[in-house]
Amino acid sequence: MADAQKQEPHKLDDVMLAMDVVDTLRHETKLLARDLSVEDREQQLIERLREIYKAQGIEVPDSILREGVQALDDHRFAYVPQKDSFFAKAYINRGKWGKPLILLFGILGMAWGVNYAAFEAPKNAAANRLERQLKIEIPRSLETARDDAISIAKTAEIQERVNALYNDGLAAAKSGKVDEAKRIERALTTLNMDLNQAYTLRIVSRPDELSGAWRYSEDNTDIKNYYLIVEGLDASGKPVTVNITSEEDQTAKRTTIWGVRVPESVFNRVAADKKDDQIIQNAVIGAKKRGFLNPEYNIETSGGLILEW
């Protein structure tokens, strides 16, 4: 173990000495003539080195001198600069291309920002709103209207109609058919409003207003259709807005006044009642109760309605 420790410094000294030999040889370029044979060149180099070190008072073994000559030929202990890489050159010349590149990135970033703010952000916001409508708002509204309507509906037929609208609305929302889902949502909400209404059906009997009207049937011009002009009044006597669908063109409208189709005999009786003193004594012709969709009439009627006369 002790011998190994003694040999390590000696080996290191030999390496350092060989490196010094090589460095000395590099300065003696005249001794590196290529026209000599390898043996003659090596011998001349060794003799020259021996003279140089002897003049300095340094004793160098021939083995070290030979090793130094061999190391020179093998290019050991020589620094070979690396070729400049692309990244090294780019870093060195960063002053030339750095500012233009930063400017380019700035322009691209600004263009991206403008495009995002003007187009992408509104598009994403609209998509998020649509998704919220389809997944949250419309189903919630449908459920609320359905629950309210079921709680007051007085007949199984009405309850089935409510549930059918609710299921159709959910199906449309799940399919992404937002317009269809909204249409059904409005229909169910309107149905719920109609169920909650309660009013008395009364013939209009005011100065300068018609209490009845007639017109020829579209199917047969020899036949007249007769209508009483009515309105719905709540418990306080105020007109209510009612959803009416015309039998003539199926137009639906919310209104406070409309026409109810009656036989000619009923029409003539009401006309005679009004003729004597301009007052209709028996003006109430029915009532609509909460939880039902249609009024109950106390006169004969086909139930046909009109919006214009």
How would you characterize the overall build of this protein?
56% of the residues lie in helices and 14% in strands. By secondary structure, it is of the alpha+beta class. α1 packs across α3, α5 packs antiparallel against α6 and α6 packs antiparallel against α7. It has 3 domains: 72 residues; 102 residues, no CATH class; 108 residues, no CATH class. The radius of gyration is 54 Å and the shape is rod-shaped.
What is the strand content?
5-15%
Helix content: 55-70%
* Overall mean confidence score, pLDDT: 82
Write down the Rg.
Answer: 54 Å
* Spatial shape: rod-shaped
Please give the alpha-carbon distance between the first and last residues.
Answer: 126 Å
Q: Ranges with pLDDT <50 over ≥5 residues?
A: 1-10
Helices and strands: which structural class? alpha+beta
Can you summarize the main beta sheet? 7 strands, antiparallel
Let me know the number of strands: 9
- What is the H/E string? HHHHHHHEEEEEEHEEE
Number of helices: 8
Domains (count): 3
